[in-house]
Every structure is written in structure tokens, then in C-alpha cells.
Design goal:
- By secondary structure, the protein is of the alpha+beta class.
- The chain is globular and about 35 Å long.
- The two termini are about 25 Å apart.
- The relative contact order is 0.24.
Length: about 130
């Protein structure tokens, strides 16, 4: 069975704020996600992180335990966690290249206000792109 979990968190320090920070996160995540059969997409915007994760229940839960313990995240909120028929994220770790445009497309200016509805809408927009 395949699950999709989407969470939002506040990024601590320079997490996601610089190209180097993002590159380091992506590099490690790609390796770990390939090992764990996880596909994922992430976006960083104004001190926030929004990430969708897909995989088996066991693999998704194991990754979420690591994320909750990761000091680069605080106030982790699970927005959506459900069984899905197929993957929406084809890569081990993809990066949203224009998060401000994505937020505008769903009618928000800040990821602090993202709800489960908004998170699912972002996935739909990414699939349509």
C-alpha cells in the first residue's frame, strides 16, 4: 500500500534559505529516499518548509520520526496523511522552484496558513505542470 503524507514546519536558522543549505538537504534526502523507496517534493519559503512524502506506511513513518527529531525543523504539522492509488512525486526528492508563485496560485501569501486543502491543491498543481 502506498501512502502520501504532507507536513509543514518552521525551518530553523538558515535551513532552506540559501542555495548551499538547499543543496545539502537535497543531496542527503535523495540518497536516503532512494534507499527507503520514498518519493518526495519540498518547497521552502520565508522560513517555512512544506514537504510531501510518498511510500509504504513503514517507510513514511520512519522518515517522519527522523524529521521530527531533526533540529532544522520546529513546529512540525502533519497536514495530510492518506492512502493513495499512485505516486504524485516521481523523484526521490524534487524541489519546488517558485514557491511564491505556487502559494499565489492557491490564494495564500504565507506557508504559515497552509491547510490540508491547500497542501492537496499544491500536489494537484504540481501534477498538472
Amino acid at each position: 500500500m502506498l501512502y502520501r503524507l504532507i507536513y509543514a514546519s518552521e525551518a530553523v536558522g538558515s535551513t532552506g534559505a540559501s542555495t548551499l543549505s538547499v543543496a545539502q538537504i537535497l543531496g542527503v534526502a535523495i540518497t536516503n529516499n532512494r534507499r527507503d523507496h520514498i518519493t518526495s517534493a519540498v518547497m521552502f519559503h520565508d522560513g517555512w518548509c512544506l514537504q510531501g512524502i510518498e511510500g509504504s506506511r513503514q517507510d513514511v513513518d520512519r522518515l517522519m520520526r527522523r524529521i521530527r527529531q531533526d533540529r532544522r525543523h520546529q513546529n512540525v504539522r502533519v497536514l495530510s496523511d492518506k492512502l493513495v492509488a499512485s505516486r504524485s512525486f516521481p523523484e526521490p526528492m524534487a524541489l519546488c522552484d517558485d514557491p511564491a508563485a505556487m502559494l499565489r496560485a492557491i490564494g495564500l501569501s504565507s506557508m504559515a496558513d497552509v491547510t490540508a486543502y491547500h497542501a492537496d491543491r499544491i500536489v494537484e498543481l504540481k501534477q498538472a505542470a
